[in-house]
Design a protein that fits this description.
alpha/beta; 5 strands; 6 helices; 128 residues; five-stranded parallel β-sheet
Length: 128
């Protein structure tokens, strides 16, 4: 099972992003279950606009929703992510701590991401 970070997902869905081809190659070789959370969904839909001004966001959302399992965070997840944020002394941003919380809850230890902050997490395998 893989968690997909917004950096990877934006690259995968945006042809003119510098890592697009690389992301497509990696994605083609992964047959395991793919998970995101609502934070990644929001970051991705907003982030794609940096590369594609005239993108059909409804189409992008439909694609993501069809191939990813979107986990929606609860209030308690946000509260528990504060503990993760404090544990890493703020060296990992809060959005990434919400990702880590989702990963913990779903026993996921692999992430597709171009964000090297995830390299700070013991036991986490970042694929990039």
């Amino acid at each position: 099972m893989y968690f997909i970070d917004s950096s990877f997902l934006i690259s995968l869905l945006t042809e003119n992003e510098k890592n697009n081809q690389h992301s497509c190659e990696i994605s083609e070789n992964i047959n395991e279950y793919r998970v995101i959370n609502n934070i990644v969904l929001s970051e991705t839909l907003n982030g794609i606009r940096r590369y594609e001004k005239r993108v059909d966001i409804n189409k992008i959302y439909t694609i993501i929703n069809e191939v990813m399992d979107i986990k929606y965070l609860k209030k308690s997840d946000y509260e528990e992510a504060i503990n993760i944020y404090s544990y890493y002394n703020g060296s990992i941003n809060y959005s990434d701590c919400l990702i880590l919380k989702t990963m913990q809850d779903n026993n996921i230890n692999k992430i597709l991401s171009y964000d090297d902050d995830f390299d700070k997490i013991n036991g986490l395998q970042r694929i990039y």
